[in-house]
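Input for the complex:
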Amino acid sequence: MKILLIGMALLASGLVMGDEFTAADVERWQQQYEQVAARGRQLFTDPALGSNKVVCAQCHPNGANTHPETYPKFQKQLGRVAMLWEMINWCIRNPLEGEELAADDPDMIALQAYIHKEREGVPLAPGKH
Amino acid sequence: MTMKRRNFIRRATTTAIAGVLPVSLIRIAGAQESADFTFAYISDSHIQHIEGNRFVRNFDRGLISAVAETNLMNPKPDFVMFGGDLAQLGTREELDHGFEILSGLNGLPLRGVLGEHDYYLDLGDYWRQLFGEHYYSFDHKGVHFVVLNSILTFDDWTFNRWESAERRMSEMAGLDNPNGSPFMVGEAQRRWLAADLQNISRDTPVVVFSHSPIQKIYKGWNFWTDDADQVQAILAPFDRVNVIYGHVHQIQYNQIGNIAFNSVMATAWPWPYPSSYAKSGSHVPVMTVPMNRADPFSARDATGWQLINVHTGRVDLEYTLYDNSNRTVSWNGASGRPEDTSYQAPALRVPPQNHY
Ligand SMILES: [Fe+2]
Ligand SMILES: [Fe+2]
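Predicted:
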């Protein structure tokens, strides 16, 4: 009931419907993604992400060997199915000797945006080892 | 104080690993010593300075283990090569710290190959004080050894592009950094090489050490030497040539004409194969059986060092891999190329060797 009322109010105020967007919108949204992915690349090579100046790109040039398309997947070392961000935190905590990021931390989102961008075009393969 | 710490590190590490040394590494001396000798090859330790007297422990440990295990070899290897990238950012602190760990090698002669991480801060000045000349040759038991400095690049990039030496070093230190520049041996050194080989008979075995591969694998990560073709042409007339290189932090091997190529592992960390970068395409020599994919939960997995056996002018590499089954890549006289002694046939390969 409440939702319906809000919808009526939006219609009355002349705003566009949720599924109507323009080519300009698409371009803007893509740019938003590119900006976040670029921020992720910065973090990927940032000695301040951890505490010992080691950076992600030292072991993962161009984000290689991160296999974002295979998550969620079983990690035998954790004994359960895990997500990519959990593995990123493992790397921040161990090789980088740093502090973990929350799953919704903008930096964590940026790191994943970059890793996925380097993997563009690779089919999804959840669970793959 | 320094000596005390070094001795402590050596004793502690030796005690810890003596019980787990693989039996395959205890060599039986050959009947003819002159035709069969070994040397150890340790590479890519990337000693990384944090600040003050703090260094990245993980990378220290990789080098400390290689030194301790090399000391346990019996019979002793004739000498030890260090294959380059001792430091991460080429500083005195890093080179001194790495060299101090290497000086724990019990009286074994040590020679060095220059890596880009050792070079691009001060153009190899301090490294020269520790190891000597950037390129040179020597003879040992009938084999002619040549050490090249293969990580030079265009003068314009080295001398004109960057506002500081620190900036130049950090730009070259990023493997996937598009601001980097392709490696090369260069014309002056190629002339030196041709002259050095002039009086060596064609049937003398030749072993070349370089940091980058003297073959073109993947330019994007400098698994590459720009003038590799010209260097190969200088080596081509010899019956038996073996090129051993670091830099790639992974197992690779290949055969081009009479030249056998073998890479060595890093003690610091493994690198993905270029084929696992989806945007790069596949470049690794097809005859290579890859190293196992690294277990991210094991800091020392997919790192290690090599014991290299020289016999009949060809080389066998025994890869001592911490936290992983050892590998042996040997010269196969019948096929005329290096082959893995356990995994070469496709049916023998194991799932972790599948990289994607
Ligand atoms: Fe290296
Ligand atoms: Fe290197």
